């Protein structure tokens, strides 16, 4: 109930009047008539400082004001997606925005300027015309969840200091396993810092299942182990093989059909060849939604082979796993319930803020067995509560960020049906794009079929290329088109979309849609923009 | 400039009046006279919904109101540290707080209740009397930084979508390397999801330096590799050895003196014994600030041995690395500049919100060489900017959370000197505690010397135990004291402090101080509370 006016002046003789009396009960009841901090006011005025409540409240409200303005503009199509600058420009300093750190404190006034500038020179990943990544959009409830998470500032390793979050994680993982279709309730899982780590977990758990002695004796205790994954799969399988001591040479890439899906016969042939060499086929990764094409490997046929040869089946659904929430699209993952483990990133197709990735394991106990080290200072057996809720020892991390709350809160707010609508809408939009350009002049689809996910892959041919004869010269010129258009998009700040080569295919655009703010008009805008920028190339 | 009143009623016939006209420009200019959402209002009213600006603003301000009330109470010593409930109680549902997820959306009103309840049943890790973990406290500027980070919702893998954050990370890592004392500017580093992963990176990089062929050929391409670390070191070294394919048997634990510091002669003897067996000593971890005792291994003497035998030297300064910021205490890490890699977690002793951990590497290029897979869809070589700023390929992650901004913003706000003051203050407090109890009746220090870090390890003997003869019975009874007192602390919610056994030592309290809100009165309170709760045991 303490009043606060001109706290700045009271503190060190500054005479600027900075605020009105407030009672400190609820921020919603109080008008603030100024947004200036005195230039002498710094962090030492904030809590836990004596009389720090009001400056703290004022400071946080200033920050929230900056953030809500940013949010408003993010959804405003008249705002640019980004204000591009080269690294050397930002490093040299932009209009008083200096990235260098110093020995002395800056004023809170300057800190607020730094916050504004950080956002100003960043990229609006929630903008309806940001299509650059698999993770796009800005979900307001998820954002609120993340603000709360950082305010709670705790750690997932024990129930002791994260009771609510630990239970939320447990319940949510169980729900996800049910959606995968695992009947028994004895599965397991954990939220990890991203899909690459989730995939790494799957390889670790597979190895532990078949060769548990590797945990103590190392890879020399096992025969030569081989992993199989599609040539279109995510590079994290290779990263895991390098990190975990398999070696990238022991990752066998599987051939795909023209739509980017694994050819099961190729898997079986390679498994047989591996066995004939005396090596052990350990693990197959089937991708549900590849990164570039959005292809879904035929899980059932792959599962048949895995069962026949006793191989661990992982489904990397980092991108496509969310389609399990859609009654219309979940058939694309048919057979997923036969997998031994599944990666599923709610931070991609479900619009949950970064980071939120789950590794789900069908057999309970493997994660724990694989990773536990029983640290006495954290996992005391003589606590007063049921210590099976201390889940930290099954992680490869010790401290673990709370990734669950924002997701849990969004699920509460949207319901399963809300996620389903989100996913169906994004897939409808990609069908709209596909139908719009598949026969349009100057466009060529990278493969000739309706996309399975929201990925639409295509070349744009500027008029100057269209009449050229097929051949290396045309290919070379086409290869440069997407990077040039992308660079111009970024310079103008109008939109962003990804491109890449794939195999022997020269650079093409990969359009993906995961943002619930995107509409058909944004798709139209993207096409107009490609044509505007690319017309004279 | 759109007005907004009774948007709820306009939308679906509800007649409750919900808000005043606002102009939508700045939240600080507008009084809100109600904090009720209509029970029919749900997430579909929020952005990107048509006319979603005002409901979004209203919702976020309600959330911020909940959060600022929580923050205020966190610093209020009359508030409990926690309101303990057993897992089954929370799972059964507390007064309308239901953790289960459903198919249908909840109202925003209920979402706000869920937010309040989540905080209510959690643990206030920022409370001045929360001493349970190495990471405590709630830094207001760091919190603001994290709110901004989640609003920006981007990903560290490319400069393209995180230009400002990528540069901030680069500059901050360089500054940290300078503080370590590496003279050349050619070092490297990355922020990782916690100290365990940072330590894992150090082992990976050491392996790559000496046996780069492991990346492609697996561990079978290398001889038997051995890692050395203190018996008091963090369990993450063992976790890494299990995960990376070394095997925990190939981690040799080093003997320590009574203060928990590695005995260098023991290291040398074990290195020689390892070589005599034909194995290869690859890596030594010297801990700067052990988890339980807070001990600092003698880095210079260990470095001499590492140089003599050509072994990688890592310094795990997850807990103690921050002392490098203090002119008074940095001598405890003397020799750290001779290390090949250093783990340093600003989220511990420097009060940065979770997660914020850096792995620093003296030699540039190793992280990249070790982990790069050159994914074409992310790291296109034909971008218009200098792609050496696309740092994602040196991570084991693909997507990577922005952990840098809150740290950078805190550094701006506090300056190097502000961190120094924070650290010195916490160490002063631990000295105060040590001096208070070292000769106090009923207390016994676990080792007999002033602590090197803020860890103070001690037994409390209830009066009933004091006159017992030394022996197994007394040990068994003493072993139960700390868990019992801790359980009562949690039930009463008054404070939290850790305990554990270590080696042949029965359960003792480990007091640690990293919270800038703690004062001598809080130390006094802790001791009073131990005596109050433990007196009649």
Keyword list:
disordered N terminus, seven-stranded mixed β-sheet, homodimer, alpha/beta, 537 residues, 12 strands, five-stranded mixed β-sheet, Aspartate Aminotransferase, domain 1, 39% helix
- Determine the mean pLDDT of chain A: 93
**Number of E-state strands of chain A:** 12
Per CATH, what is the topology of one domain in chain A?
A: Aspartate Aminotransferase, domain 1
Shape of chain A: globular
Q: Specify the number of helices of chain A.
A: 16
Describe the overall structure:
Two copies of one chain form a homodimer. Chain A is globular. The first copy, chain A, has helices at residues 7-12, 53-74, 87-92, 108-120, 140-152, 163-180, 195-210, 214-217, 236-243, 264-276, 299-309, 366-371, 404-437, 463-466, 472-492, 520-534, and strands spanning 130-131, 188-192, 225-230, 251-254, 280-287, 312-317, 341-344, 357-361, 443-445, 456-460, 496-502, 505-511. Chain A has 537 residues and is of the alpha/beta class. In chain A, the strands form two sheets. Chain A has a seven-stranded mixed sheet, with helices on both faces. In chain A, strands 1-11-12-10-9 form a five-stranded mixed sheet. Mean pLDDT of chain A is 93; it is low at 1-35. At the A-B interface, helix 2, helix 3, helix 4, helix 5 and helix 6 of A face helix 2, helix 3, helix 4, helix 5 and helix 6 of B.
